[in-house]
Amino acid sequence: MKIIRIYTTIFAFFALLTLSAQNNITIDAVLDTEKKVLSISQEITYTNASKDTLNKVLFHDWANSFSSKTTALGKRFSEDFLKRFYFAKDHERGRTLIQNITDKNSQSLKWGRYQGASDILWIQSSTPIYPGKTQTFVLKYQVKIASSKFTRYGYEPNGNFNLKYWYIIPAVYDTQWNVYSHKNLDDLYAPISDYNIKVKVPHGYQIVSDLKKETILSSKENKDKTIELQGSNRSEVNLYIERTGKFYSFPADDIEFISNIEDNDLMPEMKSVATERIISFLQTKLGPYPFDKILVSESDYKNNPVYGLNQLPDILRPFPDGFQYEIKQLKAITEKYLENTLIINPRNDAWIRDAIHIYLMMSYTEQFYPEMKIIGKLSKVIGIRWFHAADLKFNDQYFLAYKNMARLFLDQPLSTPKDQLVKFNQNIANAYKAGVGFKYLQDYLGDDNIVDESIKEFYSQNVLQFTSSQKYKEILKSLSNKDVAWFFEDYIQTNEKIDFKIKSIKKRKDSIEVTIKNKRNNAMPISVVGLRKKDIVSKTWVTNITGTKTVKIANDDLTKVVLDYEQKIPEVNRRNNHRNLKWIFNKPFQFRLLDDIEDSRYNQIFIIPEFEFNVYDGFTLAGKFYNKTFIRRDFEYNISPAYGLKSKKLLGSAAFFLRDQIAEHGLYQMRYGINGSMFSYAPDLLFRRLSTSANFYFRPKDLRSNVKQRLSLRNVNVFRERDEENPVETPDYNVFNARYRYSDFNLINFLGYTLDYQISKNFSKLSATFNYRKLFLNNRQLNLRLFAGTFLFNDTEKDGDFFSFALDRPTDYLFDFNYLGRSEDTGFVSQQIIIAEGGFKSQLDYPFANQWMTTFNANTNIWNWIYAYGDVGIVKNKGISPKYVFDAGVRLSLVADYFELFFPVVSNKGWEIAQPDYDQQIRFIITLSPETLIGLFTREWY
C-alpha cells in the first residue's frame, strides 16, 4: 500500500504542475475567545488560470452571511421555517468587518459587495491579470464568529470553536465567475491553494486540523500561543479550536485519522479496526488518499447523517454499537474523502459526487454487512418480524427515501442546482436516487466491475483537479458494452418516473410473448425475469420501450414472469410487475396488522384499531381496513366500522380516493374521492354524510415555493335522525360547494385567502376569508384576518340559524370540523372554537347572521407566546338593523393554530373579566389529529 501511495503522490505532483490555478494563501489570525472575534491579516496570491485577462477578482466572504436576517442565508433559514436565526440575539450572529485591502505594494484597492450580496466581494486589481500571471491581495479584517446553533459551525456554549468558512477565499473562474451565497448547504466551490496559517489562541486552547502543525510559539507571559499550520493542494481549511478536547486519533491504513464522532463507548481497538477497514475499502475502490491526515467531525456528520432508525436515542436504536459507529464513520469519511480530492462545483453538479458517495456506502454494506436489515435487531422480534419491513435490507432505505418523494410528486432532476431543491431532496432523496442509479446501471450492464472501474478511473484521472460529471460520462461510455445514454438523458436530467407493467402474456409451445407497457415518457430499460417457482430461469433486458413492446422468452416450464424481480430498478410502482402463469390471481391477498412497507408481491390489506371521542358516542372503537402504506399511493381506500361505547351504536366511515398527476407545475394534480360517515350529532341521534369531490391542485415551477392553490368541487349529502321532542324542519339536505384556496406560507410572511360558494335547495351563500401574518425584523408578529359573507338567497327561517353565518362557533352543517361536542351550548366542550367564519372569541348576543356578516380579527404578540387580540364586525339579520360587535382579550399561543387558549377581557357585554362565571367564557383550540400535528414538523422538509 505504501508503494501505491508513493506512485500516486508522484502522479498527483506532476498533475498539479500542469495546473495554473494554484494559489497561495497566508493567514495571521488572533482569536479573542471572550468577544468571539478573529482578527485576520491575510495575503492571497491569486493565479489567473483562464485564457481571459482579469481586472477584478471575486471572493467568497461567507462569514458575513450571518450579519443580518435579510442575507441569502437568513432568507434560507426563514424559507425552511428555522426560527432560531430570526429570533437570535445580535451578538449570536456573525459578520466580517473589512478594515483595508491593498496590493503587495500597500496601494489601496477598490472593493465592494458583488451585486448586493453580503457574502461575495469584488476587488479591483491594481494592474490587469493576464493569463498565467499572478496578483497579490493583502486584506486586513475582523470576523465576528456566529453561534454554532445555526449551522453547527461557530462558537459553542462550552467555549470551543468549530470554524468553517471563517476566512475570505477566491472564487473559481472558468470563462465566468462561479460565485454564490452561503445557504447552509455546505457547498463552497473554491480553487486549490497552498496554505500557511498562524493562529494565536489563549494558552488553554488547542487547534485540531488536517494540516501539518509545524511550530508552537508561546508568549513570555504564557497567556497565549501561536500555532502554525501548513497544507498544500487544499480547497478549504476547517479549524477546531478547543478548550475541552473531544477529538481522538489513530493510524488507519497509513493515514492519520482524526475524529470526534460519538463512539457509543466502543473500545479504541474496535474503533481502529472499523476505521481502518473503511479507509482501506475507499482506497481500493477509489485510489490512494493524497494527504496524510483525514479529519471528520461530529458537526460534519450531523449536517449530513445517515437518516433512519440509527438517529433514535441510544436506548432505542436497533443496531449493534459497532455497526452504529461504523456506518456513521463510513458516511462522514467517504464524504470528506471525495470532498477533499474531487474538485467539482457542489452547487450545480453535485449529483456525481453524491452518486459515488452513496454507491460506495451501499457496496460497503453489501460486502461487510450483507444480512443487516433496515430495522436492525428488531427484525428478529416476535410480532415485528412478521412485517415486510423486517425483510428489507439496510440498503433498501435509499430507494424508499427517493420513492417517497416520487409518490408525493416532489422529486426533482438530479441536475437541479442544490439551492433549488426541496430540503428533503437536498439532504436525502437526490443523493439516494443518484446512488441507487449506479446500482441500476450495474444491473443493466451485467458486469459488476464496469461501474466500479468507471468510478476508479474517474477518480484517478481527476484527483485534485477541477472536474465535472461530463468527464465521468465520457469514461463510462468508453467502458460500457451497452448504450448508457438513457442514464444521463432520462435518469439524471429529468424527474421522469420509472413505471412499467406487464400488459399481456401469450403462451406458445416453446416460448412466451410478453407485452410490456411503459407508462412514462422515457427510454429507460427494464429486465424481464422468468421464474420456475422461486428459481430464476431467464433474465432479459428490454430497451427503448415507447408505449408497448413485445419480447419473446423461452418457456422452460415457467410459473411466473416478473419485471425487475431482483428489485434493482427504482421503479415507483412495482405492483403491476407480476404475472402468474399457473394461477388465476397474479398475487395472493395478504392481511397485515398495522402499517407496513409496501410489498409488491401481494395485494395487501392493512388493519389497525382506531379510537375516537365525542360526547355523544363516547369513545368509539374502530377497525380500520385500508391499503395506504408508509409511502403514499395513487389509489387509497379505508373502511372503518366502529362501535360507540356510550351510544352503543354501530358507526363508522369509508373513503376512496384516486390521484392523477398530469403535469409538473401549473395544474399538476387532480384528486377524486367519495366518502361517507355515520356518527352521533346529538344524544341518541345519528347523522349520515355522503360526499363526492374533485380537487384540482396548482403549484409553481419552483418547488421550494410555498405557494399552493386548490380548487375543490364537492357535493355533500347529510341525513339526520329526527328528534321527536325537538324536531328540526330540514333533517336531510344536500349542498353543492365550490371552494378556491390560495396560500403562501412562510416564516416571515403568510398570505392566504379562500373564496367559497354554496348552493342548496333553500339557500345560496358566498363568502371570502383573507389571512395575513407578518413577522417584523424586531420580532413583533402581526396577524390579520378578514371575513365577509352574504346570502344570495335564504329561505331557511324554519331551521333557525342552522345554516346562518356564525360569529364565534359555526354550526358546521357540512360536518367539516372536529368538534368534541358539536351540538353543545353549555359545558366545557362548548368552549371549543375553530377559527372560521366570524372568528370571534366572545359569545355575544348576536352570534349568527342570516343575511350578511363582515368581521375583522387581529392579534399581536406582547411577549413570546402571549398575544393581545381584538375583533370587530357587523352582523346583519333579516328585519333587524346591522349590529356592531367587538371583543378583545389575551391569547396564549402554546402551539400556533393547534393548541391555544383565549381569555376575553372586554366586549359588547362589557368588562367580561369581572363578570360571574368567567371560567365559562374562556375558549380553546385543540387539534388531536396526528396527521395535522405531524405537518408542523415536516413542513421544513417538503
Automatic annotation (TrEMBL):
Swiss-Prot/TrEMBL keywords: Hydrolase, Metalloprotease, Protease, Signal
GO terms for MF: metallopeptidase activity
SUPFAM superfamilies: Metalloproteases ('zincins'), catalytic domain
Lineage top rank: taxon: Bacteria
InterPro entries, A to Z: Peptidase_M4/M1_CTD_sf
Signal peptide range in chain numbering: 1-23
UniProt KW Protease keyword: yes
The name this protein goes by in its record: Metalloprotease
Species for this entry: Aquimarina gracilis
Lineage: Bacteria, Pseudomonadati, Bacteroidota, Flavobacteriia, Flavobacteriales
